Protein: Alpha-ketoglutarate-dependent dioxygenase AlkB
Amino acid sequence: MLDLFAEEEPWQEPLAPGAVVLRRFARARAGALISAIEAVAAVSPLRQMVTPGGYTMSVAMTNCGEVGWTTDRRGYLYSATDPLTRAPWPPMPAAFSALCHQAAVAAGYPDFQPDACLINRYAPGAKLSLHQDKDEPDLRAPIVSVSLGLPAVFQFGGLKRNDPLQRIMLEHGDVVVWGGPSRLFYHGILPLKAGQHPATGDCRYNLTFRQARKVE
Structure:
C-alpha cells in the first residue's frame, strides 16, 4: 500500500550551469546541524553586523572555521578572530564538515575544501539583498548553502545585477551549490514570512560554506 506521508528521498534540481539545488539533502541530519549551530553561537554569539554604508543588516550572523566573514564601516573581510569576542572563531563542527563534503561531491565539486562557514539567522522580515560572493581569493571554489527551518525564497540571477532572476522556494534541509560558470551570479533572499517550524521555531538558519583562503 502506498504511504502518502512517507518522507521523500533527496533529489537534484538543476539551477544553472555549475549550480544545483539538492532537495532535502540535509533533512535527515538537521537535528545535529541545529545543535551544532547552538554550540557555535554559545561561543561566538549571533549579531547584526553593520555594512560599510552604515546599514544594520536584518540577518543575524556568526561564523565557525579557520576564518569568519565580517563587515563593518571599513569594509568586508575574512578574519581569524571574532571582533566581538576578540577570540578565534569556534572550529567547524564535524556535522558541518561532513554534510558540506557530501553535498559538494553530489554537486560535482569533490575537491572543495571549506575553511569558513557563515551562519545566518533570519527572523520574520529579514532578508539578504542581491549580492555576489566575491571576497574570496580563489573563485574556482564553489559555495555550499544549507537551509534549515522556515522556508524562504532564494533569488538567483546572473553576472549582472539586472539580469533576470529565478525565484526558488528553499525548504528545510535543501542545499544549494553553485560554482564554475555561475560562481559570481547575483543572489539573495526575499523577506522571510512569519511562521513556525518544529525544528527552529519562528526563524530560518542558513549555513554558507566557503573557501576563504587560496589553496595551491
Q: What stands out?
A: Confidence is low (pLDDT under 50) at residues 1-6. The first strand starts at residue 11 and ends at 16. The chain is about 10% helix and 30% strand. The radius of gyration is 16 Å.
